[in-house]
Amino acid sequence: MVGPGARIAYPGTVIRTALRPAWLALLALLLAVVWAFVQLGTWQIGVSSNEAARERAAEQAARPTEPLGQVMEPHQTFPDDAAGLSVTAEGSYVPEHQFLVPDRLLEGERGYWVVTPVRTPAGDGPALLPVVRGFVTDPADADRPADAPVRVTGTLAPSESPAEDGPWPEG
Question: Cα–Cα distance between 48 and 64 in angstroms, integer?
């Protein structure tokens, strides 16, 4: 009988048992199963998110192109379901208000979005609609459009939160 103060000595049988080939094989099998389950879980999450993105893209593509005035008005909160919606707008570019958005990536290349507002007629008077006209790697390559009537077709995108740090490039 072992009393409360007695020490139980493990003769190296536990270690010897754990190091037997059968137990090592069982450990290896267990680790392989755990690794497989992690990989399968990651794969399933990826399939799920890709499928949701494809469904959303197909849903947006099936919607017809609408005039911007039917989707939203100036100074209105961006509609929850408008991201990716194809719209048309008529007006004229305002080249003196063109600006560049820095630190953008296109196919792994760093550069700038060229954004030029289009002055559109609205219910309460003219409004400016920012239009991303292109991508340049050098700010000097950003040409200014003519101040002439245009009809633009594109997809709506919500704005990004402004960054607090600068400096901002000229343009």
Answer: 27
For the stretch 30-46, pLDDT in tens is 999 999 999 999 989 88
E strand intervals along 42-148: 66-67, 86-93, 99-106, 109-122, 125-136
Whole-angstrom distance, CA of residue 135 vs CA of residue 133: 7
Taking alpha carbons only, the member of 24, 28, 8, 25 closest to residue 16 is 24
> What whole-number distance in Å separates Cα of residue 156 and Cα of residue 81?
10
Strands 66-67 and 86-93: parallel
Alpha helices in 63-138 (DSSP H): 68-71
At 17, which helix (H) or strand (E)?
A: helix 13-18
> pLDDT per residue over 138-152, tens digit each?
999 999 888 889 999
In this structure, how many other beta carbons lie within 10 angstroms of the beta carbon of residue 78? 12
Amino acid identity, position 98:
Q
Residue type, 133: R
In angstroms and rounded to an integer, the radius of gyration of the C-alpha atoms of the chain is 31
